[in-house]
Amino acid sequence: MDIRTVSLAPVIRLAFALGVSLGLVGCDRGGEPAGTATAGTDAPVAIVATTGMIGDVVSAIGGDRVAVTTLIGPGIDPHLYQPTRDDIVAIRGARLVFYNGLLLEGKMTDALVSAATEGRKVFAVTELLSESDLLEPEDYEGAFDPHVWMDPARWAHAVDVVRDRLIEHDPGGEAVYAANAEAFLTELDAVDAYAERVLSTVPEASRVVVTAHDAFNYFGERFGFDVVGIQGISTESEAGIRDIERLVALLVERRVGAVFVESTVSDRNVQALISGARARGHEVVIGGSLFSDAMGDPGTYEGTYLGMIDHNVTTISRALGGEAPAAGSAGRLDGADDGP
């Protein structure tokens, strides 16, 4: 399947709810922000990305023509992240800023709006997604689920956004940006095809992914899995006793044998599920740790977007009774069974 064939038309929505690029509404004062490269010079373009998933795409497409600063690193929850003074300095000094949108970076809103009104170009990588391609959970107050990177087909359009915005800013690098984007999409196609293959080996009755918070809905829709998060879409929500009891009943009824922890979320509630199921005579184990809102450590395969997806897919498949090589799609995973 070519993941670029998914139809995603632009729509207009509130800027931070859907992720409309603030660079389109920012007041352009005609000057270059201090400390940034001007298009056409030999110096790399200074770019800020809010999350590692976005930073990885920008780095892959931009290559040596860009210098990327990522604000939210491994193991850090973007839902709760408070921008630091250094973050504000980085945003104000960047020529381009790429963020996720869909309310993922809620606490960073003021900094992004300020940068846009000062003439910085601030773009949401989700700007090409249509409302029909976004999930709107019942308990999320009319907003959309921001975890679109969990579906490689949707995330492919983030590649299109980054490529086009880089070309728009730096026309001299068009050939480089286009070639790098095409290469990245080819790799993304391969990981997506691998995911389809190994996840299809999980017995249908076992296709239930229970995690610490509701970050895997796009994954579930894409690959045909039921997904249950103990907390809601945002980790700011709290799971109550009734939530735990309800999920314990689900584990027992569906005979789910494994649940998953996440690299950015406490495992306290997951452990409560395991204890509750055991009290009712059903043994549940931790199937592994998944990357949800952040990737692995820099310099590792799991610290890339492709490695993040490869790890998650491989871990889920093996834990739920499917067939997948421990080293993943390209033999590059380190300890897929043990998690990050």
Provide an overview of this structure.
The chain has helices at 15-19, 52-62, 85-93, 109-117, 152-169, 174-199, 217-223, 241-254, 268-279, 305-319, and strands at residues 45-51, 66-72, 96-99, 121-124, 208-213, 226-231, 258-262, 285-290. It has 340 residues and is α/β, with parallel strands linked by helices. A four-stranded parallel β-sheet has the order 2-1-3-4, sandwiched between helices. Strand 5 (208-213), helix 7 and strand 6 (226-231) form a beta-alpha-beta unit. Helix 2 packs across helix 5, helix 2 (52-62) crosses helix 6 (174-199) and helix 8 (241-254) packs across helix 9 (268-279). The longest helix has 26 residues, at 174-199. It is globular, with a radius of gyration of 20 Å.
List its salient traits.
340 residues; alpha/beta; two-stranded parallel ribbon; 10 helices; 13% strand; disordered N terminus
How can the largest sheet be summarized? 4 strands, parallel
Strand content: 5-15%
Strand line-up across the major sheet: 2-1-3-4
- Structural class, from secondary structure content? alpha/beta
Q: How many helical stretches?
A: 10
How many runs of DSSP E, i.e. beta strands?
Answer: 8
Low-confidence stretches at least 5 residues in length (pLDDT < 50)? Answer: 3-18, 24-40, 233-237, 336-340
State the end-to-end CA separation. 29 Å
Radius of gyration: 20 Å
The shape is: globular
State the helicity in percent bands. 25-40%
Mean pLDDT: 84
Spell out the helices and strands N to C: HEHEHEHEHHEHEHEHEH
Task: Give a quick precis of the structure.
The protein is built from 10 helices and 8 strands. The protein is α/β, with parallel strands linked by helices.
